[in-house]
Amino acid sequence: MSLSLSEQLAGLSDYLLLRQKPIMLAWRKMSDADPNQTTGRALSRGQFEDHVPEVLHAFERKIRTRAGGPDASAAGAEQKREEVKHGLHRWQQGYRLQELINEWGHLQRCLFEELATFAKTRPWFEQETLAEANRQLLSLVNEAVSESAVQYERLQQAEAAGHMQDLAIALASVTEIEGRRSALIHEAVHDIHGNVFGVAVAATQLGSTPINDTKRAELAGLLDRGVKSVTAMLGQLMELARLEAGKDQREIVEFDAAALITELGSVNRPLAQVRGLFLETTGLSRLFVDGDPSKVRRLAQNLLLNALKYTATGGVTMSWGEEKDNWWLVVRDTGPGMLEGPGAPIVVGLKEATASARESDEKAAAIEGESSLVLTPPSDISTAAAHQNPGEGVGLSIVKRLCELLDASLEMASSAKTGTTFRVVFPLRYRDVRAANILR
């Protein structure tokens, strides 16, 4: 007696549930063998699998219930939620969009081979049922790729909006300086002794009569601050443009990360002391790792200088250490926190991605009998006005691009009460140095 379509699909769903671990293992091996997939190689098993087991569970339920019913709709909604979380987490882990799309393609191939094996070994499994299962598989991958691409586009647009806001603030600053400069000159003209008989006379006297020293100093200070601010902003935008255009490549060598960060702290400690802040460095005395020391230094310096710049009291702590196949750097300040203000929408993306990473890592850690090391979001929900400073968005984007270049993940936790903490997790070793030196 032949089985109905629903019964055949239920049998396939049971089979996929039992085969989930071999499927995940085959997926990891296929991704590792792909020379273009460099980021995932530095991840632990739990980090690599991320929310995909939940996606597969939803896919199995969807196959069992078929399309159209309420159970299938619930499974589809669950699948979509997990795909969104996966896309956010991969962005936070430093994946390039091409890597993420390729990764879904590898998973599709593994699942396709499982479907083919199941059909060959079950005479009662009809071709029509196999075709339906393949349609569901294509739908899964298409939706997953689409959701991932949407997340990337949303976060990139948020970054771009932040950069536009920073440029607008810089332009407003220049306009304000120009207005104050005009006012000072206007005052100077009125301070000139004698009557002003016309524009020509005023211009002549202004050219021959010196401006008051106090006003001259104020004007010079305004111009100096304005020029420095705009120059720094343009410099950051140039660096970001270079990174986004793929003009930077990484050069992997072995170096002592502990010595690099300790030296960076020593160089910047006088700056902290001038501002009445502490700058502490703590970690292993020696930590030899693979990586690009110049880019690691740029990344760490961006985080450190931002922390010092926007911290009024207290100070900054830089710490580092080693965990399994990775090493980490933490920069923690006692500043006012980075809330979801208009200056840097990337902050929202980093918070969402860190929360997604925490959820995934807690599940993997529980299986291993360990605890998650991903930053814990602050428990307090501040009602203070949004705090965001010009340039923070560009600086964070530079850090994010450097993380992508180095296959590193970036986590953030921030609140008005506890300040801001950034944690960057780098690979301890790069498996394929030749592949690591490709132009990203």
Secondary structure topology:
Blueprint: H1 5-18, H2 20-33, H3 45-49, H4 52-65, H5 70-92, H6 97-121, H7 127-191, H8 199-208, H9 213-244, E1 253-256, H10 257-274, E2 278-283, E3 288-291, H11 293-309, E4 315-323, E5 326-333, H12 346-368, H13 392-405, E6 409-415, E7 419-427, H14 433-436
Parallel strand pairs: 2-4
Antiparallel strand pairs: 1-3, 4-5, 5-7, 6-7
In terms of DSSP E residues, the strand content is: 5-15%
Distance between the termini: 57 Å
Count structural domains. Answer: 3
* Global mean pLDDT: 77
SS element count, helices: 14
What's the CATH C level of the largest domain?
Answer: Alpha Beta
| Sheet with the most strands, sense and barrel status | 5 strands, mixed
Please identify which CATH superfamily of the largest domain we are dealing with: Histidine kinase-like ATPase, C-terminal domain
Strand order of the largest sheet: 2-4-5-7-6
Basic shape: elongated
What class would the helix/strand composition place it in? Answer: alpha+beta
Task: List the helices and strands in order.
Answer: HHHHHHHHHEHEEHEEHHEEH
Description:
By secondary structure, the protein is of the alpha+beta class. Helix content is 63%, strand content 11%. The chain has helices spanning 5-18, 20-33, 45-49, 52-65, 70-92, 97-121, 127-191, 199-208, 213-244, 257-274, 293-309, 346-368, 392-405, 433-436; strands at 253-256, 278-283, 288-291, 315-323, 326-333, 409-415, 419-427. Mean pLDDT is 77; it is low at 180-208, 381-387 and 434-440.
